[in-house]
Amino acid sequence: MKLNIPWIVSRRNVLIAATLDFSLCVFLYEFVYQYEFDSEPSRLVSNTFAFFWIVVSYVLGRYEKTKKISFVIISKVIIKSIFLLFLTNTIYLFINWGYPLLFFWTDSNFFNSDLKDLSNFFIRVTIYIVLASTILQFNLGIINKNFYEQKKIWIFYGTNKKFKEILNETSFTTKKSIFWLSNKDDISSLDVNNIKGIIIEDFSLINQENIDLIFKLKLRGIIIDDFLSWFETQFHRMPTTLIENKYQLLEKLKSTQDKYQIRIKRIGDIIVSIFILLVTFPITIITCISIFIEDQGPIFYSQVRTGHKGERIKIYKFRSMVINAEEFGVQWSTSKDERITKVGKIIRATRLDELPQLFSVIKGEMSLIGPRPERPEIEESILKKIPFYNYRNVLKPGISGWAQVNYPYGSSIRDTINKLSYDIYYINHISFLLDILILFKTIKIVFTARADKRNKFEDLS
Length: 461
Prior knowledge:
It contains 17 helices and eight strands. It has helices spanning 6-10, 12-37, 43-60, 71-102, 113-148, 160-169, 208-219, 227-235, 246-252, 259-279, 281-295, 342-349, 358-363, 376-383, 402-406, 413-428, 432-448, and strands spanning 153-158, 178-182, 195-200, 223-226, 300-306, 312-318, 367-369, 398-400.
């Protein structure tokens, strides 16, 4: 099994912050417990608590990069920490005190002094952890800002035409300082102290003298990469506009042949889908009732989409638009579509309208993570305008995907092309860990109720 990790490398700051936070939680919990009760705490409890802590911290954005230090930033950090403290204690107290009250159990064993001591201990230890974690994360942000985020320039070594294509592709994403150097120019005069790396368009076009210089620069720690690999590593997508022939893409598609990886993905799909269905069952009932009450229309709607290897599949969703939303034919959905109902706005923002598709996942027609399935009539039109679009079908379509969690709502063919670049990247780098990252980012979107930013061709009813 091959593990591709450029997206992990680019998120090393988040991983380091989360790892340190996890270790801090476990250490303080076990240290304080042993100090107060003079006994060893349960490792399962301390590790479960620490895992919950870092997951909620990620959802709240506590591990995001600190772009600047200001009163507003500090206030947000404090507010997030207070909310995390309140949430963890509320859940803990409900688990330990809520169920006897909920079921009107009055047995004194439920309210003994040991339980009170444990509750008081948990409140104290979470206060200690919040204070220590806030100080730790704030200082990590300062260190990251001052030492690890110093901007250095990239040199593109190739033709001016390809350089302009790269600048056009990077215009909507993170700004990077990229300068052009013709592949006919001498690179011996470059100031290597201010260069992070050199992007090579075509190694075969470089003369022997410059090849030797590039080799020496690589030995000095300067990054040397071809432009497609560089783009994937830096932006976590693969633009089709930069792909000159199908062979470049076919070389990257080897990851889909990893049967072990696919089997792991399938097992995870089934287990997680069943778990989500059970956990969200009360929400599902409320959603069904709310949709019906608003306009007495159908609760579900179905559409035919293009699935794995071009096969037609039928997907189901909670209805988020008015009845007969497409009575005048297929229409593109927009971010402020007037056909969306009041309930629809809520369930679309929180992705609750996607819940019925979990049955398609269990059935095997879809996956939790993958390129979003498209309507055949829409896909037929897109295929004529966008090259390599049908490569999305090499995997099972997903409820959520790399494009959905990384790219905002689009309203043009250009936006569809950009989303395709994320889908191709996912296909190239499919792994269990990447699926976990997408799942967490999707959870973050659901809990923050971010505005609906899905592709314009999706969800037309």
